[in-house]
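pasting for the record
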Amino acid sequence: MFFAPMNAPVHDWHGRRIWLIGASSGIGAALARQALAAGARVALSARRADALEEVAGGHPQALVAPLDVLCPDGWHDQHARICEAFGGVDLLLFCVAQYQPERSWEVREDQADFTLRTNLSSVYVALATVLPGMIAAHRGGIALVASAAGYVGLPGASVYGPGKAALINLAEILYSDLHRKGIDVYLINPGFVQTKLTAKNSFAMPAIQTPEQAAREIWSGIARGLFEIHFPRRFTNWLKLLQMLPFRWRTALLQRLVGVS
């Protein structure tokens, strides 16, 4: 019981119907390409249709479904379109993020609101859209890409970090609520990955990975039925250890790590 996979392992991706939110660049684009190569049917969503078309590359198993995650009507419209084309959704993978490095005194109300609505509030619209069908079918999966930045209070992540910490908490609640209803839940906590977002950082990023490496870790974790998928372990395990230290020690070590005071 305590050592069995928390979700159902996935042995074959052929025919799996995946709705990938945030598929136009970075980790999301790499996830989409790898899923298509593995035989899955993938609906690709993000705001930029041209970027999604490039990622899809004309693949017959790809469905380009442009979506602004802050538009509730768009969620319902695209979900209906995907269900018509695919017959349903087996896995919703939410890989959307907005990030601005900022200390607490630099936070602007409008930017903070936009970040939290993008990274957190829109997840609830996604859940309201797909969960009724999954619960009725007693099958499906929800995967949320949070971040190792949600483990501890990282200087410079004044809005991004709390939003990701909330996603971690939400994923745990979702697992408790949905597991007995036949729905798998995956919490994905990457460390640093080379994307347009991390390019904004001015500090050294330990164990930084490419989007392709990150995507392989994510699909491997889902295939094995893991609940939490965190990587690279040589970085995330250290953050998990930091969580257990007294706050005085933890904050001093973190400030040294990212080179701020």
